[in-house]
Amino acid sequence: MADLRKKFRVAVLSVVKHDYLPHAVAAHPRFELVVVTDDADQPDWVHERNQRFADEFGISYLRDIAKAIAEYELDMAVVSSEAERHCDLAVRAADAGLHVIADKPMSTRLSECDRLVEAVQRNNVKFLLWNRNFLPAVIQAKEVIQSGAIGELHAIHVDFYFSKDAGPPKGTRQLGDPPINWLERQLKAHADGSDGGVGIEAMGELQIEGIYPLAYIRMLANANVRRVFARTARHFHQVNVDNHVDDLASVSLELDNGTVGSLCIGRTGAASHPDIGEIKIHAIGSKGGIVITEARPEVSIHYRDQPPLEFKNERIANENDFLLMDDFARALDTGCEPILNAKGGRDIAATVFAAVESGKTGQPVEVTH
Amino acid sequence: MIRLALIGQAKAAKSYGAIRTRLHRAVWAAFVPLTASDGQAGQALGQVTTAPSTEVLFTEQANDFDAVVIDADPGQAAVLAKAAAAGKPALASPLLADIAALGQADTMLMPAHTWRFLPSIQAVKRSLDAGKLGAPGLLRIHRWLPPEATPESLTERILPDADLACWMFGGAPEKVWTLLTPSNPDYIQFHLGFANGGMAMIDIACSLPAGGDYFSLSITGGTGAAYADDHHNMNLLYAGDQPNALRASQGHTDLAGQLQEFVDAIHEQRQATVLLKDAMRAIAVTEQIIESASSNHVIEQKENS
Questions:
Q1: How far is CA B107 from CA B29, B90, B161, in A?
Q2: CATH class of B2-112
Q3: Does residue B191 carry a pLDDT above 50?
């Protein structure tokens, strides 16, 4: 019988992005942040952000991961580094016997995802890839589909548009100007939280955010994607043009249980929507269909002199963070798998990489599982 | 005043009758029922003469009307051929006949693309044409139909949205990819790639239970986006158990708008805003969509039409 009073001791392995993930961990009563740690050879901006977060929580920042693991009697690690370091840090934590929660995207390389899956299995630890599957509207979609109200699921579609800007619009670079550096742009974007792609390697919107809608589809259809056909474009932002990565994509999906579906995703610019963006789930079955707006429930707030970029509709009753952590605590207590484990995250990453390849070749691509 | 003749079923007479008082510069003058039992249906159009057949209409009553609206099944191609031969302007389904051949005739033929005239679609297209949205990037359409609203043929199901996509992007797609599973013939999904990275993702399901349909169209451009979405336009009815959603109706504005455009084009002696080449393009894309489904290959178009 698990000790439900046990508080899990958590190390933050790098916290360079918007820090929702370690905040969510800290907010759950079963978890306690005890140290922030990173490799000593990281650049100054990484150390500065790590130190700032450690100061916020009144805990130490050690520039030596092995030492932190040795000295702090840790149960788990939360990884919120640049995307290209996610898997390496997670593997090192798993090899030290720690359970791991990692931010999305899982990695910039599928081989790294495979390495992580192997490490998690070999060390018999739990891994959670951060996701949004516990948003109220997504839970509702799941309940409706599982209830059989729409019959056998035939198709599932997700629209996932973030109406955020990403620096200068496409076409604004003047002759002779250098291309926008990806990392520099991401570092600047930290101020408004639009730095989801922070890292040295440039990533398109499919790579940065694709995990979220694909995790919906995987959960709701209870199947993996078998084949994709994708169309990708650099339609909005100069930084995407300069770094040859998509900011708009559409992906046709064939799942291994015969269900089909699609994903439309983009960083569509702040002007394209009054709130964070149009995010919807459409599911059609043998007996009916359901249309779900991911933002609901929400309240509308309008007032004089309202800042133009302030969302007019505010999401409420969002317990995604808490429920993810509750789910992970349950996994640690009982040995069950969390809602999106390493293999699930890896399979979603494989879908993303296949879609990126399809976007380049213009042909359908099989997803490797 | 332009005198119109209607060739169609009672249902068409009823639909056009409901909007007859909105019509400017035109009046209904004749009706040809396509089935004998619909003989009285012309009364819905007002004071019209009812011809027993299209043969009689185009010969003995040819001087009684100026233009013809044909609301017939695709199989009834001969009707349109007669209209063309009689030199009467015609408003007719793009699938009614060999439309390419009719395009050679010296007669105004406006393909009935009623879907373009929905107020919601018109508003989206106006904002696109005005440059508010920037270059179109992604068009997304979900169209779910109950049995009573489902056209018989796959071509009829696909054509409206294939046309909308081409219309919004101003050309035919370069690439076409379709998902259609034999085990689920009520569903088709097609993915179109347009020039300059443009893309359209469209799903059509005909498996809704009897009752309302659902339609959602959104288009995202470089500087903005437009959403014409039934989900946004639902009111609520409380009558026990869970509340029911009631869609706010767009009325008969699509049919009225299309008919008025036909009349105005004749009156002003100009081309209609829907051209034969639009219909031909939509038909060609529809054929590619079906070809992709049957071949399981991406269909690539060599030249942009």
A1: 20, 8, 27
A2: alpha beta
A3: yes
